Amino acid sequence: VKLANKYLMPLITRGTGTGKAGGAIPDKNGVVVSLERMNRILNIDPINRTITVEPGVILSDLQEAIGKEGLWYPVDPASADWCTIGGNVACNAGGPRALKYGVTGDYVLGLKGVYGDGTFFQLGGKLLKDVAGYDLKRLLIGSEGTLGIITSITLKLLPPPPPEQVIWCGFDCISDGIDFLIAVLSQNIQPTAAEFMPGVCLKAVESYQKTVFPFSHHAAHLLLVLDARYQLDYSILPSCHRVQFDNPEALWAIRRDISESLTHVSISKCSEDITVPVSQLPALMRGLQRLTDQSDYVCLGYGHLGDGNVHVNVLNTDQPIEKWQIDQPYLVERIIKLGISLGGTLSGEHGIGLTKKPYMPLYFSERDITIMKGIKAQFDPNHILNPSKVFD
Ligand code: LAC
Ligand code: ZN
């Protein structure tokens, strides 16, 4: 990092490159700093209920290691088998269980690493409470490699979760599914996960996995995880068709494969990540349908709708690539403006990186962005770290 400062050479920190906003793409001449081989688990501490790891540890390896100690880490992005915990911290990754358990940043107790000018930092530790000064650790979380290089992470762990029930429901139309979801969220229970999938997502997974699901004819689907002690009141939820199944893990495999599967069935696609208040989901889904009707593309919303986080995908299934390249930014802008007009944000969990950067001024004021740039200048005075990401 010191040499990079001397030669004013960009450093682009990278885990396994699973990020969906292009944050790890070296679009400027510079050096990619791969942390993949910094993958040691440094310490599991059952008394303080923490784990300390290097950033290159694959998330599912971390989950397995603490499982052996009878502990649990709830954050489970769909890429858990191949993303790194460092990337999760850098992007503040979420996932299905965020609805009940929160996101990566809610579990980060301590960080060590290097600021942009090469000085070391050590922030927080095995501490459940720490309100001293400004929360620099929190600024690093989700900073997408623009403020520091993280070399050690201490996470808060939990005891294993209570027994859970997995419920899969099919619906005759998207709006029935959304109404059902909102009715579930209005009951006096806290779902662990509530994942919504339009029928087109299941068709794509069928094609990708080369299989057929007996319930894929429904127009919309909801995968619900609840504590076993909760009893859903189906009498006020008449529109759902319960799907019977033996193997909940196969259902999760469907859900986790959606992003890859939509890529598989499209000539090209883009993948947005807006979040709206859950009460605005019906309006958002209507807006996406309008966009589909008015364009030559399929605009669909799937994902963690229980917490309002919608992976809006635009699929190009039959248009020439040249036309797509012209239409795509226009469509993305309409989607982001739609989300913001409903009280939403432009990214719930994927971050800004390269792909969302042009849309930052739609969400933040000029003054907000000036303050962010001032923070960046303090952490990284020579603008070495991932210099072309988040904002220009
Ligand atoms: C998912 C990724 C795309 O939820 O965030 O499938
Ligand atoms: Zn997601």
Give a short synopsis of this structure.
By secondary structure, the protein is of the alpha+beta class. The chain contains 13 helices and 15 strands. It has helices at 2-7, 59-68, 85-91, 98-101, 136-140, 174-186, 199-209, 248-256, 258-264, 281-294, 321-341, 360-363, 366-379, and strands at 11-14, 31-34, 41-45, 50-53, 108-115, 120-124, 148-156, 164-171, 193-198, 220-227, 241-243, 268-271, 274-275, 298-302, 309-316.
What is the overall pLDDT average?
97
Number of E-state strands: 15
Ranges where pLDDT stays below 50 over 5 or more residues in a row are none
Q: Radius of gyration, Cα only, in angstroms? A: 21 Å
Give helix % range. Answer: 25-40%
**Secondary-structure-derived class:** alpha+beta
- Which term fits the overall shape? globular
SSE order, as H and E?
HEEEEHHHEEHEEHEHEEHHEEHEEHHH
Structure notes:
- A 5-stranded antiparallel beta sheet has the order 3-4-7-5-6.
- Helix 6 (174-186) runs antiparallel to helix 10 and helix 7 crosses helix 9 (258-264).
- The protein is 32% helix and 21% strand.
- The mean pLDDT is 97.
- The protein has helices at residues 2-7, 59-68, 85-91, 98-101, 136-140, 174-186, 199-209, 248-256, 258-264, 281-294, 321-341, 360-363, 366-379, and strands at 11-14, 31-34, 41-45, 50-53, 108-115, 120-124, 148-156, 164-171, 193-198, 220-227, 241-243, 268-271, 274-275, 298-302, 309-316.
- The protein is built from 13 helices and 15 strands.
- It is of the alpha+beta class and 392 residues long.
- Bound molecules: lactic acid and zinc ion.
